[in-house]
Amino acid sequence: MIRFSSVVLTLMLLPAASSAFDYEAQRSSFIEREQALAKNTDGLPEAQRLGELIDLYFEYSMLEYPEFATFIGHPAGHDRWTDNSMTAIERRNEDTRRSLQLLEKFDRDVLQGIDRLNYDLLLEETRQQVEGIDFPQHLLAITQLNGIQQDPVQLFNVMPAQTVEQVADIVARMEALPDLINQVMIHLNAGLQQGVTPPQVTLRDVPGQIAALLSEEPMDSALMTRFRNRPNTISKKEWSRLTRKARRVYRKSIVPAYRKLHDFFVNRYLPGARRTIAATDLPDGEAWYAFRVRQMTTTQLTPVQIHELGRSEVKRIRAEMDQVIENTGFDGNFAAFTEFLRTDPQFYFDSAADLITAYRDISKRADAATVHVIGKLPRLPYGVEAIPDFIAKSQTTAYYQQGSQEAGRAGTFFANTYNLKTRPKWEMEALSLHEAVPGHHLQLSLQAEIDMPWFRRFGGKTAFVEGWGLYSESLGVEMGFYQDPYSKFGQLTYEMWRAIRLVVDTGMHALDWSRDDAIEFFKQNASKTEHDIVVEIDRYIVWPAQALAYKIGELKIKELRARAEQALGDAFDVRLFHDAVLGNGALPLSVLESVIDEWIVRQQQRSASVN
Q: Are 212 and 168 contained in the same domain?
């Protein structure tokens, strides 16, 4: 799973005041240039006009979403937040509709090759954004997995802090937090009135997450992490001045604002949140969930079709798991074996430090083995860290935070060390391959290096990104992992986990399943610990359809590999195949299929010419 990447950048934040920043002037300039390109007053060829429009939309994104600029290492806007007032939301919706009208008037027939692909992807993305306007996602401003109680900490921790100006930007954003928190409360209150909230049962840990940010000693708060160690590039005098200001802002402004949010959340929002769990129970929920399914899978599959596919995959993987159990010589049935895996002390570490060290060891071995299955490797390094304590209880087993060459920030594989008796050793190899290499870190870092438009370098489709992550787990066999039967069972458990998602996500959101139904189905078919199962089910509840992307994407990549192997025979090279899959970024699955079909033809022609 990916956190805080441009694929899922959903911060709902407000602008900080800046005397040097003139938003209206920049916005007026953008509209004027967009109108000139719409009218094509300079008589540009269509491909050049498209390229200039794409560049203009990059400037627009940096203007409207300064957190995104920070994340990718762009120099502008580090002292501001995105304006998420209703006025701003409506203004951006108007901009998106206008952009779609402009794009639909392009002459696609005169565009060729990469220009046509860029146009098709941008047009489809914009159409989807316009369709999404009908669904008030902004009212779901807090879940147990993201929101104002988590996102600012993550943003502060990726902001550069090597100069006085950079640290001053962090302080400026801190000064805006009270207004930001108030804005979130406005959205939450509107959600209560309109019946648009996450289910109450999923929000149980949020009050604790908010409270964990508050401390009598400012430096103990996660919000102040960047002020605990002075960089050598800043003098002691300047560091002392900036730290004093940050401490003052924290005590006098941030703490009261978060206490107000905590009281509102505990006394009004949590009691008023909906008791049902299905996305289809939200206003216009059936259409909303159907939109999410299309968005996340990049297919036209219906929830019922996905549900049945999931059941078929569960059955297939279960047969493989039963075979592994038989091979171990274990005396007992599937339920007894999974209970053994969940409870036997040999499968667990006694310290968080040992768990993280073991993940680092696996990742280092994976780095060396990846060259056997991937031709082109990224330049950006990555590290392995523990998920911060204040959010770990409600977080999933692990996630990846994308790095940035421009920002000088490595990628990070975050592993959960909360409750060590729920973190078995047998799941670690599969998880590492998914989150780091050859999974998310490799794919996203390579994508950022490809010479293609910004919206493709820093964006992409979840079905591809998470499908590649899951597919990467299966590459562990070719890379020399899963040598003991428990790790192999762990890999199958993780594949089963993603197949279960197809069943329980659609079950809860479209087929009247209860939360308990979903938890029980999970328990019956996978050996993950009960804590992990509950956290996962609650994740699927608040992120409808996101979990469908993994298995749908993985199955498509495996299908395309089988097709290529059959077509090319002895000429098939797995490294070249993977380079072809990864070489155009995170594409919709139908576009990926076309890319690989064309690659197969080229490989056949090359093979024929050699012979």
A: yes
Residue 273: strand, helix, or coil: coil
Given this model, what pLDDT does residue 13 score?
Answer: 33
Element (H, E) at 95: helix 86-104
Instruction: Please state the domain count of the chain.
Output: 3
Q: In sequence order, what DSSP letters do the residues of 453-509 get, joined into one string?
A: -HHHHS---HHHHHHHHHHHHHTTTTTT---SHHHHHHHHHHHHHHHHHHHHHHHHH
565 inside domain: no
Q: Are residues 144 and 158 in the same domain?
A: yes
For position 31, what pLDDT does the model report?
95
Segments in 195-230 forming alpha helices (H)? 206-211
Look at residue 355 and give its three-state secondary structure. Answer: helix
Q: Does residue 114 carry a pLDDT above 60? A: yes
Q: Which two tokens stand for residue 139?
A: 């009212």
Same domain, 371 and 227: no
Domain finish residue from 250, 275, 300: 275
User: Does the pLDDT value for residue 196 go beyond 90?
Assistant: yes
CA dihedral 271, 273, 277, 281 (to 10 degrees): 140
- Does the predicted TM-score (pTM) go above 0.85? yes
365 with 245, same domain? no
Please identify which residue in the block is written with the tokens 């002075």: 230
Residue 440 belongs to a domain: yes
> What are the angstrom distances between the C-alpha of 76 and each of 66, 68, 474?
7, 10, 41
Give me the sheet containing 411-415, strands edge to edge. 2-3, 398-401, 411-415, 382-386
Q: In terms of Cα–Cα distance, which of 520, 511, 487, 204 is closest to 362?
A: 487
Among candidate residues 275, 306, 332, the one where a domain is terminated: 275
pLDDT tens digits for 466-491? 999 999 999 999 999 999 999 999 99
Reading the block at residue 313, the tokens are: 């995959």
Confidence check: pLDDT of 14 > 70: no
Same domain, 22 and 153: no
Q: What pLDDT is attached to residue 3?
A: 58
Residue 15 pLDDT grade (very low, low, confident, very high; cuts 50, 70, 90): very low
Which 3 state secondary structure label does DSSP give 189? helix
DSSP letters for 130-151: HHHTTS-GGG----SSSSTTTH
Give the pLDDT score at 611. Answer: 67
Residue 217 and residue 195 in one domain: yes
Cα 255 to its chain centre, rounded Å, is 29
Q: Give the other-Cβ count within 10 Å of 311's Cβ.
A: 16
Q: Where are the alpha helices (DSSP H) in 223-351?
A: 236-249, 255-264, 270-272, 285-297, 303-328, 334-343
Q: Which domain holds residue 426?
A: 290-550
Q: How many CB atoms lie within 10 A of CB 253?
A: 17
Q: Are 350 and 388 within one domain? A: yes
Residue type at position 122? L
- Tell me the pLDDT tens digit for each residue of 435-452: 999 999 999 999 999 999
Residue 200 falls inside a structural domain? yes
For residue 91, give every residue at least 6 positions away whose Cβ sits within 8 Å of its Cβ, in sequence order, or none.
none
Query: Do 163 and 124 fall within a single domain?
Result: no
90: confidence class by pLDDT, cuts 50, 70, 90? very high
Classify residue 271: in a domain, yes or no: yes
Which tens digit of pLDDT belongs to each residue from 559-573? 999 999 999 999 999
Convert the pLDDT of each residue in 265-299 to its tens digit: 999 999 999 999 999 999 999 999 999 999 999 99
